[in-house]
Amino acid sequence: MQQSWIRQNRMTGEWVIFAPSRGKRPSDFAMEKGSAGGTAIPSRSETCPFCPGNEDQLPEIIDEHTTRNGQSWLTRVVPNKFPALTPENETGRHYQGPYIYAGGYGKHEIIIETPAHNKDIPDFEKDEAEALVECYISRYAELIESHANALVLIFRNHGRNAGTSLEHPHSQIIVTGIVPRTIRDKEEMAQRHYDETGRCLLCELTGYELQNRTRVVAENEHFVTFIPFAAEVPFEMRIVPKRHEGDFRNLQSEERRAFASMFQHVLQALREALLDPDYNFVINTAPRYKLDEPHAHWYLLIRPRLTTPAGFEIGSGISINPSVPEEDAQFMRKHTR
What we know:
- By secondary structure, the chain is an alpha+beta fold.
- It is built from six helices and 14 strands.
- It has helices at 126-143, 181-197, 201-212, 253-274, 311-316, 325-333, and strands at 5-8, 15-18, 63-66, 73-79, 93-96, 99-103, 106-112, 151-158, 170-176, 216-219, 223-226, 237-241, 279-284, 299-304.
- The strands form two sheets. Strands 3-4-7-9-8-13-14-12-11-10 form a ten-stranded antiparallel β-sheet, sandwiched between helices. A four-stranded antiparallel β-sheet has the order 2-1-6-5, with no helix packed on it.
- β1 (5-8) and β2 (15-18) form a beta hairpin.
- Mean pLDDT is 92; it is low at 34-38.
């Protein structure tokens, strides 16, 4: 396997991962979703490494969550065969003229969300959705303990335009030994707000959304989903815990069930309202050494892939959203009841 490495863009301070091995990934998306000639997705595929019975195609099984009787598995965690980052790489910085680079240290895991090749999150039973949340939390809890792991990012790519190459439902975890500039900027904004006001920024925003309610999409006892006031893309949504918490590991049992119910409910509504759009979701948490800071507050971000950034967006960094958050929220509420 070709080793990855990381280079810093000296114009922005942001890091870029170079992972040549990922160019060799297989893909079973031979045609666009819904295109002519498309066939129904089977419940099991002989060639899919994530399907039961094809375990010989997996490098190893890191973790597994089973049914209560232990007779079958609900979720599995496996190494990514084509990782963006690997633990064998070192973390030290090196210099080449004016440039800075480092070894591609990190980890890259796949969470196989279900044994069924054709069963997406909106179709899960309650215990399946809860098992997925437990899997997210247990992997996060283990990986965040390592001194070298500065950031643990759990994410899901749904659809070809969102970056999916294999159709079997799965999420991913990437661990980095660096804190990206984008994460650092958000963290510094939240810290500055706390220093000035003594209040958590996301708590304050969430409280206002719950009071105003024009952008709220769904709510349960422990979580609220809303479209941000300055959403960068149409139907962008945040699922935010009502209780202030910076550490994803610290979800209590009833909060875990409420989180599973909420994100499944919202993804069901997204599929129904927008005819199963491609999307990405990311569980945003603070860097490892900021988890206990009073300004840290985790949340899940969903971004449908309904628009494509053009020249102005790329050149300026300013998003152009052709949709209005209040109208998007009103439309989504019709599908979350």
